[in-house]
Amino acid sequence: MRPSGRELSEMRAVSIETGFTKHAEGSALIKMGDTHVLCTATIEERVPPFIKGSGLGWVTAEYGMLPRATNTRMRREAASGKQGGRTVEIQRLIGRALRAGVDRVALGERQITIDCDVLQADGGTRCASITGGWVALRLAVDKLIKAGDIISNPLISPVAAVSCGIYAGQPVLDLDYPEDSEAGVDGNFIMTADGQLIEIQMSAEGSTFSRDQMNSLMELAEKGVGELAELQLAACA
């Protein structure tokens, strides 16, 4: 029995609210259980120096957690004068994941920055950030298309992410914090809506796992990403 009472292949309740902020070109508040992340998209008519003049667009991301997103207060990273290694790793992951679903030629030489701010954390914040971040990205791209700034839609496919792991010896979908902290195996699966893999982060934490278990987790991830992609498209409709 999972601590939440969910079935092994059952996601947490997921909701996506668009237009959550006034000024951003795209915004979405995603809730995956008790993990809540605000994702905003900002369009800029510039690109990083290393692709300037190439005609290619760029999608990047920044990630952060509010001090009381967790059960004890965390010090703001700005107070220490630098980002922690976990923050840097996660925001690079979000940027890589979202770029995989973008035709950068069609986007044109401009940058879209996705800001992901964790309001409340209960496991799976990076997965929620990627899933909600794509919705914010889609809304920003829709504005570019409506304004006539780009001719064709540069978004190849929805991109979503979900965690899976081995908890109490069983493969489970969408780990919350109690499961994540006790799981013998933990993984994040980032995929397109049609099941193409973008990235898998997988590690054993106290126990090993077999090829059959890995395949079981893959099947759970495909199910979860499929459900998330439907929610993404419904939110953007």
From TrEMBL:
Family matches, as CDD domains: RNase_PH_bact
Reaction catalysed by this enzyme: tRNA(n+1) + phosphate = tRNA(n) + a ribonucleoside 5'-diphosphate
A GO molecular-function annotation: tRNA nucleotidyltransferase activity
Top-level EC class: transferase
Transmembrane intervals: none
Annotated Exoribonuclease phosphorolytic domain residues: 10-140, 158-224
Binding site for phosphate: R86, G124, T125, R126
Keyword Oxidoreductase set for record: no
UniProt keywords, alphabetically: Nucleotidyltransferase, RNA-binding, rRNA processing, Transferase, tRNA processing, tRNA-binding
PROSITE patterns: RIBONUCLEASE_PH
EC numbers: 2.7.7.56
Subunit structure: Homohexameric ring arranged as a trimer of dimers.
HAMAP family recorded: RNase_PH
Family: Belongs to the RNase PH family.
Functional summary from the UniProt entry: Phosphorolytic 3'-5' exoribonuclease that plays an important role in tRNA 3'-end maturation. Removes nucleotide residues following the 3'-CCA terminus of tRNAs; can also add nucleotides to the ends of RNA molecules by using nucleoside diphosphates as substrates, but this may not be physiologically important. Probably plays a role in initiation of 16S rRNA degradation (leading to ribosome degradation) during starvation.
Protein's recorded name: Ribonuclease PH
Organism: Tateyamaria armeniaca
